[in-house]
UniProtKB/TrEMBL annotation:
<dbReference type="GO" id="GO:0005912">
    <property type="term" value="C:adherens junction"/>
</dbReference>
<feature type="transmembrane region" description="Helical">
    <location>
        <begin position="340"/>
        <end position="365"/>
    </location>
</feature>
<dbReference type="InterPro" id="IPR003599">
    <property type="entry name" value="Ig_sub"/>
</dbReference>
<dbReference type="InterPro" id="IPR013106">
    <property type="entry name" value="Ig_V-set"/>
</dbReference>
<dbReference type="InterPro" id="IPR051427">
    <property type="entry name" value="Nectin/Nectin-like"/>
</dbReference>
<keyword id="KW-0812">Transmembrane</keyword>
<dbReference type="Pfam" id="PF07686">
    <property type="entry name" value="V-set"/>
</dbReference>
<dbReference type="GO" id="GO:0016020">
    <property type="term" value="C:membrane"/>
</dbReference>
<feature type="domain" description="Ig-like">
    <location>
        <begin position="145"/>
        <end position="229"/>
    </location>
</feature>
<feature type="region of interest" description="Disordered">
    <location>
        <begin position="503"/>
        <end position="538"/>
    </location>
</feature>
<dbReference type="InterPro" id="IPR036179">
    <property type="entry name" value="Ig-like_dom_sf"/>
</dbReference>
<keyword id="KW-1015">Disulfide bond</keyword>
<dbReference type="Pfam" id="PF08205">
    <property type="entry name" value="C2-set_2"/>
</dbReference>
<dbReference type="InterPro" id="IPR013783">
    <property type="entry name" value="Ig-like_fold"/>
</dbReference>
<dbReference type="InterPro" id="IPR007110">
    <property type="entry name" value="Ig-like_dom"/>
</dbReference>
<dbReference type="Pfam" id="PF13927">
    <property type="entry name" value="Ig_3"/>
</dbReference>
<feature type="signal peptide">
    <location>
        <begin position="1"/>
        <end position="26"/>
    </location>
</feature>
Length: 575
């Protein structure tokens, strides 16, 4: 009974009836149940809503409403089938339907989303005769954080204070952090308007100047933290030092100057030069941070010089004690010696270069002269060898050596043993008859009394030469004997040569034009056999040797070719 009473409750019955009708009379195409959307401030936001009624069911009105987190509800916009469109003041001009027929497609568009638009939105569909249908959409609005970083110019010596401030605003509120290697402390706080602030404090030192101090902004709308970069700025007074004085200044030195170098933040912009116990010397000029002596130094320029460097933070002074001793003779001598040494070293180097150049030239010329001399001597040696060869050949023909080691074929032909000597005299006697027939005379011997080897047979028989007298005959025989005696042709080797040579029989068929001779050494035509035999037997040895080294051609007895032979003309000239 209790269950029936509960079921008979009018509210429960109405809900059950609505569910049954919805299941039967239509359905939402979109959005799905319990839809949650995320949007960003100052951007468009689309709220989908589309209902599809069944046949016989008609949509009469579409209404959008919102409910804040505190339970406050507001109407946004309404579209009636006959009464038209109606916008409520809170959202007037900020919303519109995306479709020209909101009855069919009731999707709502928020043109510029605000942070206050974060709420639960309801799409309400009124139908006839089926009743009302609705869907709810939960909208979350985020704001991409806007962040700034402000740094403070610090000064060395100040107390612990804020060096930089980082601020950011967003929805949900962002988180801030610091990225730096400078020792300090950070402090974060948030305001009611959603602004988050973080401050970084430290004790300023000059070593912190220019160091990194970055702020990192963290937010769920950002894929990675946003970095705001900055560097610390710490001002400090300058540090000053004086350069240019090297403890070696002396009287009469030229071009001396002092330079004041200051390091600070900001850089020093003003420099002041003074001398303790007096004023600056005359004839000096101040150009920025330099004190220039425009003349040679003197003893009165000694003293303590003070430089003051000034910047926007403060100033600092520094000093240098300048001493100017008089130049001593030893220092002058040392300077002169150094200059002289430099001159000597330079001169020696130059002289060494010149000497090396001369040596190279001399060596080159020497080698060239030596080469020419060697070429000349070689030519002279060649000429001398050629002359000696010709002279040796001449001597071999004109005289015969008794040394068997240097005998040649030519000397062998001339040498004869004692039997040959004896036969020559008989040869000379018997040759008289032959010569009388053939016309031989005094012209057939040379200036030394030697019998001529080459004979000329030009028109001798018909020349009408007179007959040789007995005195001329004896004189000719005497010359032949003297020649044979002086020639020393007494070697036994010729005898062996004579024994080894075969008998020579020259029977050349050469004939002279207009004559009856058959051969110079053969049988003559018209000569008695007895006389021919005598001539032949007496000249056997000579003819046998000459036949091996000479040949008869065209009326002349010519030597056979030999590499060491020197030919003598019948008149005694070299050929």
């Amino acid at each position: 009974m209790e269950e029936m009473k509960k079921t008979s409750n009018p509210a429960c019955f109405a809900l059950l009836l609505t569910a049954v009708i919805a299941c039967v009379c239509g359905e939402f195409v979109q959005p799905p149940p319990s839809l949650a959307l995320l949007s960003f401030a100052e951007e468009e936001t689309r709220l989908p809503c589309e209902f599809k009624p069944q046949d016989g069911v008609r949509v009469v009105q579409v209404t959008w409403s919102t409910e804040k987190s505190n339970g406050v509800k507001e109407q946004i916009i309404t579209r009636h089938m006959t009464e038209g469109l109606q916008e409520f003041p809170t959202f007037a001009g900020r919303v519109r339907f995306t479709s020209s027929d909101p009855i069919k497609d009731s999707t709502l568009l928020i043109l510029s989303t605000r942070e206050s638009d974060q709420a639960t939105y309801t799409c309400h569909i009124s139908t006839f005769p089926s009743g009302n249908f609705e869907r709810q959409i939960s909208l979350t609005v985020w704001r991409i954080p806007i962040s700034t970083l402000e740094t403070v110019i610090l000064e060395e010596g100040q107390s612990f204070r804020v060096a930089a401030t980082c601020r950011a605003i967003g929805l949900p509120p962002p988180r801030l952090s610091w990225d730096t290697d400078v020792p300090g402390q950070s402090q974060n706080r948030s305001s009611e308007d959603g602004v988050v602030t973080s401050q970084y404090s430290l004790h300023p030192l000059r070593s912190m100047n220019g160091r990194k101090l970055d702020c990192l902004v963290w937010h769920p709308a950002l894929e990675r933290p946003r970095r705001l970069s900055s560097t610390l700025v710490v001002h400090f007074p300058p540090d000053a030092t004086v350069s240019g004085y090297d403890q070696s200044w002396s009287v009469d030195r030229k071009g001396a100057e002092l330079k004041c170098e200051g390091v600070g933040n900001p850089q020093p912009h003003n420099f002041t030069w003074t001398r303790k116990g007096g004023v600056l010397p005359k004839d000096v000029s101040v150009e920025g941070n330099r004190l220039i002596f425009t003349r040679p130094l003197n003893k009165t320029d000694e003293g303590v010089y003070e430089c003051e460097a000034i910047n926007s933070v403060g100033s600092v002074k520094t000093e240098v004690n300048v001493k100017i001793p008089e130049a001593t003779k030893s220092s002058q001598l040392e300077a002169s010696f150094n200059n002289l040494l430099l001159i000597i070293v330079g001169g020696a180097a130059g002289a060494l270069v010149v000497v090396m150049t001369i040596i190279i030239l001399l060596v080159t010329c020497h080698h060239r002269r030596r080469t020419r001399k060697l070429k000349r001597e070689l030519s002279e040696k060649k000429e001398e060898i050629n002359n000696l060869s010709r002279q040796t050949s001449m001597r071999r023909l004109n005289s015969v050596s008794t040394d068997p080691r240097i005998q040649t074929e030519e000397s062998t032909l001339i040498r004869m043993d004692s039997p040959v000597k004896n036969s020559v005299f008989s040869l000379e006697e018997n040759s008289t008859i032959c010569e009388q027939r053939d016309g031989f005379g005094e012209d057939d011997y040379d200036s030394l009394g030697r019998p001529a080897i080459f004979r000329s047979y030009h028109s001798e028989r018909g020349s009408g030469r007179r007959k040789e007298t007995e005195v001329e005959k004896q004189d000719r025989v005497q010359r032949v004997a003297t020649f044979i005696k002086n020639s020393n042709m007494t070697l036994d080797a010729d005898l062996r040569l004579e024994q080894s040579l075969p008998p020579l029989s020259i029977s050349s068929g050469a004939s002279r034009e207009g004559g009856t001779e058959k051969d110079v050494w053969g049988q003559r035509e018209g000569m008695p056999e007895g006389e021919e035999g005598e001539c032949t037997s007496d000249s056997y040895q000579i003819s046998e040797a000459l036949s091996n080294h000479f040949h008869y051609s065209n009326g002349f007895l010519r030597p056979k070719p030999h590499p060491n032979a020197i030919i003598l003309h019948p008149r005694g000239q070299l050929i």
